[in-house]
Amino acid sequence: xxxxxxxxxxxxxxxxxxxxxxxxxxxxxxxxxxxxxxxxxxxxxxxxxxxxxxxxxxxxxxxxxxxxxxxxxxxxxxxxxxxxxxxxxxxxxxxxxxxxxxxxxxxxxxxxxxxxxxxxxxxxxxxxxxxxxxxx
Length: 136
Hints:
Blueprint: H1 2-20, H2 26-53, H3 62-75, H4 81-106, H5 112-133
Helix pairs in contact: 1-2, 1-3, 1-4, 2-5, 4-5
């Protein structure tokens, strides 16, 4: 389950960092920076849990990161940037929630600490979606 959390937050970080390089509205930029800090916090907590238990977590493949970055930048090369960024963030958060819920339902046992962190991620993604709706 922690691998799923790490994968979700790292892909979120890649997506946000990719769009922060573009010219977006100041309020949208601030919202994205706040979301990035939240993902950073969750990632740190996941690594802390894994470290305390002697677990190794799989990081997102650098090639996957690069492809995601390139695709994001290509999608933003024309049109209304701010609403496209918001739509892409909503899609990414929704995809992360779906994948995370599927992974959670496949786990036979998830302890309270990991479950709590997963719930924090779901809550974060739900809040991110609500926040981005105003930028569509």
